Amino acid sequence: MPHQTVLKFYSTLKFLCVFNLALMSSLVSVCHSQADDQPEVVDIGSRRELFVDRYLIGELKNVALKLHTPQLMPPVSPARPHGHYATVLHAGDKFQFYYRGDTIPGNHWKKGWEQYHAGEVTLYAESQDAIHWSQPKLGIYPDHPTFPAGNVVLMHEFLVTHNFTPFIDTKPGIPATEKYKALGGLAYQPNQHLDVKKRRGPGGLKAFVSPNGIHWKKLQDEPVIPEEWGKYFDSQNYAFWSESEQAYVCYFRRFINGYRGIARTTSQDFINWTPFVEMKANLPNEHLYTPCTQPYFRAPHIYFATPTRFMAKRGAATDILFMSARGDAPFDREFTQSFIRPGIGESGWANRANYAAIGIHQTGPAEMSFFLTGGRRYAIRLDGIASVNALLAGGTLTTKPLKFTGNELEINYSTSAAGQIRVELQDANGKPIPGFTLEENEPIFGDHISRIVKWNNGSDVSSLQEKPVRIHFAMEDADLFSIKFNQK
Asked: Which domain holds residue 435?
């Protein structure tokens, strides 16, 4: 083969190789681009999902997320708690209330650090409805003139009774003797009270267990969460078993960059805890005095937080915020406004006057309650913290692609007399699915905690299980609070 022909052949071959490589690279790039453009599919199974964040939201048109305001109700009777850092638990057949007291009334506010905490105790009450409470005579400690009812469950535990916070342990396989667990304690401030620490022992969060929430014992003498983590744990530090995380989770107060903030840690045995993570939930120049973070009882994979916002330069005024979190994700601050304001009158604007207790519970067929200092109770509809809200002019919500388990779609909603909601199921690309279009949907109006969505052929959506679908809501003067797929 002539030399020039050989050169021309190899030149052509080289060109074809380069062209093919470029073409393949382009095709790979297009494939990657198309893969990247595929929308996320959220597997919700049969979980209840709330619109407290944008987790499910694909697109909003002329509708918006709205934070709702709880209604002030008549106070619990007798009014409690009087101190801060209270806990309300639901044990199935009764509610249990834990709150702080002083052996010498008013002693808590006196100067002198050891005196400030030495006389604190943990008091206990019971109720069938979380509104009317009784103080059982427990006989655990000798009668004390300040507590004639004898309802003291913990005494003589220095620092622990300042913020003793129990929970009912739902971890599978827990011994009956440890059905209840609790954390409590403070950290000593640097270079202060060293003589007290020498006599009283180390600070930090100490662990307790109980078979019934009344008779408590230490899990161990040493704190399970060291005092250097807290700075200074002077708050309500709550732990719980998280089914979604398969771990004990504790949210506690910590100073972050000079501001009161929130950190979290997890454990498998309630004794050994992972290095803490600062949540960095604060807005600029904002103090979050209490974490108040707990699983929502109707959707425990979503954590509700009702922290106290502390305004140091406004007479130490406080109000209650709302945040949410999903597992170990950061707090969602979709709503930055106050959830519960101090209210009319001087009492709500006094020094640290507003703290929400741990415990959000159903107190009626359609309501749940929050408990605040001074015996105040606020109520809001079930799932009713926030909604997707539409004005009368109308708008739409379209979810991200979802996978679900079940054969009926349940919604929690409210409309005006003139309003309505219509529901359409679409494929992952937003194309209406025959049989489930807006035109085939029965318009929904009214106000229900639980309403099954129906189309011309009925409510059965089982044919779409495990397939990516979008839920499209056309709304007029309406609120949508939650959705859930059920088995009939």
From this structure: 42-68+387-486
